[in-house]
Design a protein that fits this description.
69 residues; alpha+beta; three-stranded antiparallel β-sheet; 2 helices
Length: 69
């Protein structure tokens, strides 16, 4: 298993997971928007080229708008 920073190439798998887990999931565009911000970092746990889970970390007090309903 590998813990690493998420890349744009991971978005398809991450969105699939998001859709399975949440009734109000983030869209691919939503992830992309925050993935490209300087104050946000996303990580994935990967095994054999398959994303198992993702997580984010946000600098400062910018969490508003990132929480799931």
């Amino acid at each position: 298993m590998t813990f690493r920073e998420m890349t744009v190439e991971d978005l398809e798998q991450v969105v699939e997971i998001e859709n399975r887990l949440f009734s109000d999931p983030w869209t691919k565009e939503g992830f992309f928007t925050f993935l490209t911000k300087e104050n946000t970092m996303f990580f994935v746990i990967e095994e054999k080229e398959k994303i198992l889970h993702s997580a984010e970390t946000i600098k400062e007090n910018t969490r508003k708008g990132l929480e799931h309903a």
